[in-house]
Amino acid sequence: MQINQNSNATTQLVDRFGRRVEYIRLSVTDRCDFRCVYCMAEEMQFLPRSEVLSLEELYFVARAFVELGVNKIRLTGGEPLVRRGILTLVEQLGQLPAELLITTNGSQLAGMAADLKRLGVDRLNISLDSLQEDKFKRLTRTGRLSQVLAGIDAAIAAGFKRIKLNAVVLKGRNDDEVLDLIAFARTKGLDITFIEEMPLGAITEHDRAEVYCSSDELLQMIMPVYPLIDSADKTGGPSHYYRMSDSDSRVGFISPHSHNFCSECNRVRMTVEGRLLLCLGNEHSMDLRQVIRDHPGDIEVLKQHLIRAMDLKPEQHYFDLDDETPQIVRFMNMTGG
Ligand code: SAM
Ligand code: SF4
After folding, report:
1. In what order do the strands lie in the sheet with 123-127?
2. What is the pLDDT of residues 41-72, one digit of tens each?
3. What pLDDT does 280 receive?
4. Is the pLDDT of residue 291 over 60?
5. Nearest residue by C-alpha to atom 17 in ligand 1
6. Is position 18 within any domain?
7. Ligand 2 pocket: which residues have CB below 6 Å?
8. Would 10 be classed as within a structural domain?
């Protein structure tokens, strides 16, 4: 992040409910080297290259957002680190007056963590659902735990400000590992957030209602072993954080089902084909690719569209796990989770 006077600018992006949008999550690819069971179907159709924004177009959109007062950019996907040329984009984004973050599955970090740090990435979120090789494989279908653990160590060695682990917890699949995952986070000096599965995209691998594991159930499991202290810590996201008296690691919960966080929502997302999504759990969107390609290089036109798009942001999401056809047909890898 490069600091200048803009970094304190107030955002010009305000929605109909008075929420200020200061955070953009950019999906830089829909592709991934993993096939996590909650995120993708086993066989996926990925976008043809012509429909995907170029690195230049991605940077252009990020710049427009920052000029409007956005102060936090997260690169996600799919797996952002498998996008060809990603380091070039990171280098450019690293010069903007905004915090730069990446959410990754960790598979490429062993070789890339030091470069990401050098090029200006401030923080990393690394997904880790299991510490057992066979279970990790079943959950990610194609992932290798040892590769991710090496990636986590490389990220720690690179000296990132704060690294957070993300674990999606599914009952009967990895809920028995919650305490082990906390112990791992404590040993490594990392934060960890447990996420309730969201019904994005149609999957057949499991019944989402059956494996639903609420954050409250997890808390009951954790408290006798690690007495968590409720905290008001915020990292600008939907996580509710707890601290522990004997460790710097924080334990967070993202609970889209059990604790709705929409009233504090400060973010929007853009899919890699340039669709601006105003809400994770709704289809309200604007086609920015069309705007960019109809007005090449005209950042003012793009900014006007972004300001106008705020009127489309819905008040909140409604997820229904019992609904057999998901309301949201796009998968998480398309959404930029
Ligand atoms: N590939 C990267 C990764 O896995 O960290 C970034 C993209 S991934 C879509 C971002 C986050 O979304 C991951 O932490 C993943 O566990 C989470 N995720 C994916 N599908 C989800 C779902 N259906 N419900 C809740 N979280 C999900
Ligand atoms: Fe890939 Fe991340 Fe989705 Fe897993 S959660 S399939 S790593 S995009």
Report:
1. 229-230, 240-244, 247-254, 191-196, 162-169, 123-127, 99-104, 72-76, 23-27, 267-270, 275-277, 285-287
2. 888 899 999 999 999 999 999 999 999 999 99
3. 76
4. yes
5. 337
6. no
7. 32, 34-36, 39-40, 77-79, 105, 127, 332-333
8. no
Amino acid occupying residue 153: D
The boundaries of the domain holding residue 101 are: 23-335
Which residue among 43, 79, 107, 168 is best mutated to probe the pocket of ligand 2, counting the most ligand atoms within 8 A of its Cβ?
Answer: 79
* 3-class secondary structure, 161: coil
Asked if residues 326 and 28 have their Cβ atoms less than 8 Å apart, the reply is no
Structure-token pair, residue 138: 């079943």
Kindly report, residue by residue over 181-192, the tens digit of the pLDDT. Answer: 999 999 999 999
The ligand placed nearest to the CA atom of residue 76 is 1
Residue 82 in domain: yes
State how many domains the chain has. Answer: 1
Measured CA to CA, the distance from residue 151 to residue 112 in angstroms comes to 9
| CATH assignment at residue 315 | 3.20.20.70
Q: Kindly give the number of the ligand 1 atom that is closest to the alpha carbon of 125.
A: 5
- Measured in degrees and rounded to the nearest 5, phi and psi for residue 277 equal -100, 125
The Cα–Cα gap between 104 and 82 comes to 10
Q: 310: Cβ–Cβ under 8 A, 6 or more apart, which residues?
A: 13, 14, 15, 16, 21, 278
End-to-end CA gap in the chain: 22
pLDDT given for residue 287 in this prediction:
96
**Residue among 182, 177, 282, 265 at smallest CA distance from 226:** 182
